[in-house]
């Protein structure tokens, strides 16, 4: 564990800095991932020592089950002195909500490895889990056995439009704008829909940043969820005063182009030794219509407005309008908003 070298931020930061100095002394580019499970508030000093830092006890494959071994779930979660373990997805996401401003290019809040594919959650929950980790810019580290990956799980983990949000060059984490409890409680007695939004690099070449909008349905029933432009752009002006609220926005669904089970199955089959022997081609050939980040980085693809990274255009939200989505229980809807050009009035119209 920490061998007694913990108890305050100075002790912990000095301990991990020793390792960081040794890594830097090699002269080689190395990503330094710091893990003290959120003890001694690493988000306050981690950026001076490492590239990422764990913010909580270990995650496990569950949406919102309470476990006494992972305390601090609620309005005081940011002040947790006992990281614990067996932390649910929503427990960790709640902890992250208080410290999103600590993330920056080259230094990230690490929400722990992904549970997608480990089998204890529903497909909708895995979609929401992957979406939440992506929008807060957590490292996306697969935690499943890729030798036995299911097609549905591959289609989640390989969604380039969602990964592009995580890899956006701006490095800006989304923030939770609202969360409230309802009567649609699940088997664990919980129900808390929430909305997150955050700025992205502009892909339109205009003056206004793209935005990511995440709607998470904590209810036990399918729910129609709404995110007003006033709430989405609250950081740019409270109570709907932001200039962006008076504009029109194209809405791109980032899960609409999710890989089919058939395509994912073909990729899995062709990636195996038996598949290569019988088909004569590999996974790269099968997935030729998918984004190849090895060939073109996400930053380059976004700069080129690659349609594979932007998602599917579904609608346009008019000024002072609302983004609306029907969301599965414990599921999520994820969108990229792109600004439409505003009309320039002639001099005699002013």
Automatic annotation (TrEMBL):
Entry keywords, A to Z: Disulfide bond, Glycosidase, Hydrolase, Signal
Entry-linked InterPro entries: Aldolase_TIM (IPR013785), GH (IPR017853), Glyco_hydro_27 (IPR002241), Glyco_hydro_b (IPR013780), Melibiase_C (IPR041233)
EC number(s) given by UniProt: 3.2.1.22
Listed SUPFAM superfamilies: (Trans)glycosidases (SSF51445), Glycosyl hydrolase domain (SSF51011)
GO biological process, one term: carbohydrate metabolic process
Domain Alpha galactosidase C-terminal: 193-262
Example of a GO MF term: alpha-galactosidase activity
Catalytic reactions of this protein: Hydrolysis of terminal, non-reducing alpha-D-galactose residues in alpha-D-galactosides, including galactose oligosaccharides, galactomannans and galactolipids
Alphabetical list of Gene3D superfamilies matching this protein: Aldolase class I, Golgi alpha-mannosidase II
Family: Belongs to the glycosyl hydrolase 27 family.
Name under which the protein is recorded: Alpha-galactosidase
Source species of the chain: Lachnellula willkommii
């Amino acid at each position: 564990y920490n061998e007694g070298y913990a108890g305050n931020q100075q002790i912990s930061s000095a301990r991990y800095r020793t390792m960081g100095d040794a890594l830097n002394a090699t002269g080689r580019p190395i990503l330094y991932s710091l893990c003290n499970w959120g003890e001694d508030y690493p988000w306050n000093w981690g950026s001076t020592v490492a590239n990422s830092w764990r913010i909580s006890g270990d995650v496990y494959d569950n949406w919102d089950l309470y476990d006494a071994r992972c305390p601090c779930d609620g309005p005081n979660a940011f002040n947790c002195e006992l990281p614990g373990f067996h932390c649910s997805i929503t427990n960790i996401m709640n902890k992250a909500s208080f410290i999103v401003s600590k993330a920056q290019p080259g230094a990230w809040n690490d929400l722990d490895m992904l549970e997608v594919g480990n089998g204890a959650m529903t497909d909708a929950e895995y979609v929401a889990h992957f979406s939440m980790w992506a929008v807060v810019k957590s490292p996306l580290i697969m935690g499943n056995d890729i030798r036995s990956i299911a097609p549905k799980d591959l289609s989640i983990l390989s969604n380039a439009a969602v990964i592009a949000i995580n890899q956006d060059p701006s490095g800006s984490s989304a923030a939770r704008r609202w969360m409230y409890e309802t009567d649609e409680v699940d088997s664990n007695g919980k129900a808390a829909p929430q909305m997150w939004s955050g700025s992205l690099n502009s892909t339109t070449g205009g003056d206004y940043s793209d935005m990511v909008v995440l709607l998470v349905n904590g209810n036990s029933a399918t729910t129609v969820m709404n995110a007003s432009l006033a709430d989405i752009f609250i950081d740019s002006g409270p109570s709907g005063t932001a200039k962006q609220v008076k504009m029109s926005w194209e809405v791109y669904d980032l899960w609409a182009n999710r890989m089919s089970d058939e395509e994912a199955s073909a990729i899995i089959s062709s990636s195996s030794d038996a598949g290569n022997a019988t088909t004569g081609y590999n996974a790269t050939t099968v997935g030729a219509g998918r984004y190849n980040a090895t060939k073109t980085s996400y930053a380059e693809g976004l700069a080129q407005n690659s349609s594979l990274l932007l998602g599917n255009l579904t609608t346009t939200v008019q000024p002072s309008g609302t983004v609306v989505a029907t969301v599965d229980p414990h599921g999520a809807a994820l969108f990229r908003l792109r600004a439409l050009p505003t009309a320039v009035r002639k001099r005699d119209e002013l």
